[in-house]
From TrEMBL:
This is C2H2-type domain-containing protein. Keywords: Ubl conjugation pathway. Residues 1-44 have a biased composition (Basic and acidic residues). Pfam families: TRAFD1-XIAF1_ZnF, UFD1_N1, UFD1_N2, Znf_XAF1_N. One of its GO terms (cellular component) is VCP-NPL4-UFD1 AAA ATPase complex. GO terms for biological process: ERAD pathway; ubiquitin-dependent protein catabolic process. One of its GO terms (molecular function) is polyubiquitin modification-dependent protein binding. Residues 546-566 form the C2H2-type domain. PANTHER family: UBIQUITIN FUSION DEGRADATION UFD1 FAMILY PROTEIN, UBIQUITIN FUSION DEGRADATON PROTEIN 1.
Length: 569
């Protein structure tokens, strides 16, 4: 019986322990559940609080942006995020979708004058930007508007704006924030070329002004591209006044062009080195490259040239090391002569001399450029320009005994020279053994027999050369050259083409005075009859008040107006 009671007590104790453990586990589960529920409530409340804060912050930011847009746009609020698409245009004017025209028109933006836009990069999620890229990701520039013909959701951007927004590489889907702003008219700009040579351009500020006519805005830290013929110069905007972004429309801007920094000088940029009369400069030119120099003819020197007292001698002494050079000379404004564009040239093998005299129609007072072109190999040379006095020999009367009228002469059957009859037999015997006449039509030069094998004529132009010069002659004068306008011609025809026919040649506009590309023929038949180029036809269509009556007259019609209305010649 005691045994049964003991077993019953043990069973009861066991059941009590199990109930206590189950109760404890239940309490633990309930506690954990309460803690988990509390955590979830806290997380939900934190998320809700964060969303409320984000909403408040977004609202404040939107209100701030609205205020900034109202302030920047002076009552016009326009803000879009569009996909950037490049297009080949000039200047800084962009293309917007037609819907933007409607939105801006409804707010009266067109009544407030020229429209300007601030363009900023939109940082995209997932882009691996570092601190070094932070400045590039925050790139901002400004532009005008060309037209409203872009596809919806996109903005067409010209190369100038594109290169300033994306100086390195554009993302796969470049997004740009476009915001309407009002800009003050600029009064001052400080620009810095990225390489030396821009200041050597004749009237370089006028060239810059011509380039800026295609722009509506300038922004600090932008890079402005200026083209002069085939040459391209890049200028960084260092400082602007009265603000960091300005309008350049219908305003006079004081421009300072500072020298490029040493660290930013480019080695591929052409440079004009000064060359004084009587001094020589040494140099090394590689094949296919140019070395440029400049010299000037002043009034005193020109007077001596006109009086035929002196001549200008341009000379290149080259080392005989297997290389060869060519010499090209031009008068400014053609400042960088080359194989296509020049006024004087010399292609002799080895050292070469070029004589300039007052008989040359293109010669006069002014500045001249001299180009040493590496024709073959690497050549060391010395270039010099000298003012040489003309040798004035007194010409006396010939002696009576030398006159063919008083001496009996006979024509040599071999060399065709007239020889005294008493010695003709001896001369012909010697001449037939040692001399030979070139059989080429129109040549007739008498050569020593050992020299005749090196005397050759070009099959194309018929000119006579030494055999060693023929290869260079064929390459220089008869190898087809391609003009940047697409025309393919030989050298002499190419020089004539680029001097008078090429639409890309530089001319001085008779209306604005700038050096500009001539372009194709004028569209207006009357302008073509006047001899106006495409640029001059457009530039001359600008109006100006007449000095006599104040009436607005097109510049190209001003002379006719003076004659017809005011009887002025």
């Amino acid at each position: 019986m005691d045994f049964e009671l003991r077993r019953a007590r043990e069973k009861l104790d066991k059941e009590q322990r199990e109930r206590k453990e189950r109760a404890k586990l239940k309490l633990d589960r309930e506690r954990k559940a309460k803690e988990e529920a509390k955590k979830q409530r806290d997380a939900i409340e934190a998320a809700q609080r964060s969303r409320r804060l984000d909403a408040i912050e977004a609202q404040l930011k939107a209100e701030q942006q609205m205020g900034e847009s109202l302030l920047a746009g002076r009552g016009v609020v326009f803000y879009k995020i569009l996909e950037a698409i490049p297009f080949q245009g000039s200047g800084d004017k962009i293309k917007l979708p037609p819907s933007c025209f409607t939105e801006l028109s409804d707010q009266g933006a067109f009544d407030k004058g020229p429209m300007y836009f601030q363009l900023s990069l939109v940082h995209q999620e997932g882009s691996s930007a570092t601190k070094d890229d932070e400045k590039e990701n925050n790139r901002t520039t400004h532009s005008g508007v060309l037209e409203f013909t872009a596809d919806e959701g996109s903005v067409a951007i010209p190369p100038h704006v594109w290169s300033n927004l994306f100086p390195v590489d554009a993302p796969n889907i470049p997004l740009v924030e476009v915001r309407y702003v009002r800009l003050s008219k600029g009064t001052y700009a400080k620009l810095q070329p990225d390489g030396i040579g821009f200041s050597d351009l004749p009237n370089h500020k006028a060239i810059l002004e011509t380039s800026l006519r295609q722009h509506a805005t300038l922004s600090q830290d932008d890079v402005l591209t200026v083209k002069y013929g085939e040459l391209t110069y890049k200028l960084r905007v260092l400082e602007l006044k009265p603000s960091s972004s300005i309008s350049v429309l219908e305003t006079d801007i004081e421009v300072d062009i500072v020298n490029p920094g040493v660290e930013s000088e480019r080695t591929d940029q052409y440079v004009l080195k000064p060359l004084a009369f009587g001094a020589s400069e040494s140099g090394l030119v590689e094949e296919g490259n140019y070395m440029y120099y400049k010299f000037s003819i002043d009034d005193d020197t020109w007077e001596k040239l006109v009086s035929d007292d002196v001549k200008i001698e341009v000379k290149i002494d080259a080392e005989a090391n297997g290389g060869d050079t060519d010499l090209y000379v031009s008068k400014h404004p053609l400042i960088f002569p080359n194989r296509h564009q020049h006024e004087w040239s010399s292609h002799d093998v080895g050292s070469k001399t070029l004589i300039l005299s007052s008989k040359d129609r293109n010669l006069g007072t002014g500045t001249y450029s001299l180009a040493v072109y590496g024709f073959k190999g690497t050549t060391k040379y010395q270039v010099s320009v000298h003012v040489q006095e003309n040798s004035k020999h007194k010409v006396g009367q010939q002696a009576t005994h030398s006159s063919s009228m008083e001496v009996d002469t006979v024509e040599c059957r071999n060399c065709k020279h007239f020889i005294p009859s008493r010695s003709i037999a001896l001369h012909e015997a010697y001449c037939s053994r040692h001399n030979v006449v070139c059989p080429h039509a129109g040549c007739g030069i008498v050569l020593r027999i050992e020299e005749a094998k090196n005397h050759v004529h070009c099959d194309k132009c018929g000119q006579a050369f030494h055999l060693g010069e023929m290869e260079k002659h064929m390459k220089v004068f008869h190898e087809p050259l391609r003009c940047p306008c697409g025309v393919v011609l030989e050298k002499e025809d190419m020089v004539q083409h680029q001097a008078s026919d090429c639409p890309l040649r530089l001319i001085t506009c008779r209306f604005c005075g700038d050096m500009v590309q001539a372009g194709s023929s004028a569209m207006d038949v009357r302008d073509r009859l006047r001899g106006l180029s495409e640029h001059e036809s457009i530039c001359g269509s600008r109006t100006a008040p007449c000095d006599s009556c104040g009436r607005s007259v097109m510049l190209k019609d001003m002379d006719i107006h003076h004659i017809a209305v005011h009887q002025k010649n």
